[in-house]
Write a structure and sequence with these properties.
- With 287 residues, this protein is of the alpha+beta class.
- The strands form two sheets. Strands 7, 8, 9, 10, 11, 12, 13, 14 and 15 form a nine-stranded mixed sheet that branches. A six-stranded antiparallel sheet has the order 2-1-6-5-3-4.
- Strand 14 and strand 15 form a beta hairpin.
- The longest helix is centred in the C-terminal third of the chain and has 15 residues.
- The relative contact order is 0.14.
- The chain binds pyridoxal-5'-phosphate (PLP).
């Protein structure tokens, strides 16, 4: 069965799906997106993701392309047509199509594209090895809380990581604090056993996985602190990991080529991965 995409009201074969050359997302990166995980055919944390989509749109002064209920219906239909069981939905909304001009067009209608992708879970070996991160300067703009499709610094950072044989790049602000990864949030467990992730602000994207994991940690009675942490603190940490909708909780075992602690995934990291996995495997998450 061919993979399908939803483009402005139509389901079309993924390979033939296209948007207009004067779509403002294409010309100005004038749009936002969401990546919503799907596990066992259920959409995980759907409302928090749609809340964030609405917020990003609001901050960019773009209207919702359709009601939330309609977006959910399109998601379900796309999942059904693509037989999506485990993976993610990608939603992108731009200000629409208009003759190229920086100012907002008067008549453009928001454009909506939705795709889905099936993903395999990471292998036991990947989870046992953990992944490496490198550190790069944070060269992004000052509104990283908006999930903008303008991702060039993230793309460049990720490519640098890949070329260094690493999985992710952690971006460092001018004060020496880690902001986040190019498509993940950054976490450490300090030598004092404190679970730390940077506080939500315009310096980071407030990950839905991040927020969920904090809630799950609270339920488990795991103490955490939301605060900035430096590269040096991360290098000297007991444990480190990243979170995102496609990685869930992924142990970080190397920073800039040096092992984190003994170079193996930490105990708390593994516990948190299990806790998060049981949360997503609960098919009732938001079926
Ligand atoms: N930070 C950035 C810059 C991201 O792009 C992402 C996800 O794409 C995240 C963090 C993690 O967010 P979430 O947990 O909602 O996937």
């Amino acid at each position: 069965m061919p993979r399908l995409a939803y483009v402005n009201g139509r389901y079309c074969p993924h390979g033939a799906a296209a948007v207009h050359i004067e779509d403002r997302g294409y010309q100005f990166a004038d749009g936002v997106y969401e990546v919503v995980p799907v596990a066992k055919g259920a959409v995980v944390d759907e409302d928090p993701h749609l809340d964030r989509l609405e917020r990003s749109l609001d901050e960019q002064r773009i209207d919702m392309p359709m009601s939330r209920a309609a977006l959910k219906l399109v998601s379900r239909e796309l999942m059904r047509r693509n037989c999506l069981s485990n993976g993610f939905l990608y939603m992108q909304v731009t200000r629409g199509v208009a003759p190229r001009d920086h100012k907002f067009p008067k008549a453009a209608k928001p454009a909506l594209v939705m795709t889905s992708r099936q993903l395999k879970a990471p292998t036991a070996q990947t989870l046992a090895d953990g992944v490496g991160v490198i550190t790069v300067p944070n060269i992004r703009w000052k509104r990283c809380d908006i999930k903008s499709v303008s991702l060039l610094p993230n793309v460049l950072g990720k490519q640098k990581a890949v070329e260094a044989g690493a999985y992710e790049a952690w971006m460092i602000d001018p004060e020496g604090y880690i902001t986040e990864g190019t498509s993940t949030n950054a976490w450490i467990v300090t030598q004092d056993n404190e679970l730390v992730t940077r506080n939500a602000s315009s310096a980071i994207l407030n990950g839905i996985t991040r927020v969920r994991l904090l809630k799950l940690a609270e339920v488990q009675g795991i103490v955490f602190k939301e605060r900035p942490f430096t590269v040096d603190e991360a290098r000297g940490a007991r444990e480190a990991f990243i979170t995102s909708s496609t990685n869930f909780v992924m142990p970080v075992t190397r920073i800039d080529g040096e092992p984190v602690a003994n170079g193996h995934p930490g105990l708390l990291t593994c516990e948190l991965r299990e806790v998060y996995e049981s949360f997503v495997q609960d098919a009732k998450v938001s079926a």
